[in-house]
Amino acid sequence: MSVSLSELKIGEKAIIIDVNIDEIPLKLLEMGCLPGNEVALVQIAPLGDPYYFNINDSHVAIRKEIAHEVTVVLENSLNVDAK
């Protein structure tokens, strides 16, 4: 099941499957926000924006509106599909 990066809960891990290149800053792409990379939500700021992610061992703060442009598949759903 695919969801946007902004829909992850704290502690959830996922794999990036698609990125809206027109909306994502180049710096995020350079830091590893690319399809195939693992991402985990570490923390959400007190007012709900930005989100703090661990993407391929890089710690990145991403605004909610940008996180919505990244599509991921949850790791636990990958394990269910493999069975």
From TrEMBL:
Record key words, sorted: Iron
Superkingdom to which the source organism belongs: Bacteria
Keyword Iron on entry: yes
A Pfam family of this chain: FeoA
InterPro entries: Fe-transptr_FeoA-like (IPR007167), FeoA (IPR052713), FeoA_core_dom (IPR038157), Transcriptional_repressor_C (IPR008988)
Gene Ontology molecular function: transition metal ion binding
The Ferrous iron transporter FeoA-like domain, residue ranges: 3-74
UniProt protein name: Ferrous iron transport protein A
Source species: Flavobacterium sediminis
Biological classification of the source: Bacteria, Pseudomonadati, Bacteroidota, Flavobacteriia, Flavobacteriales
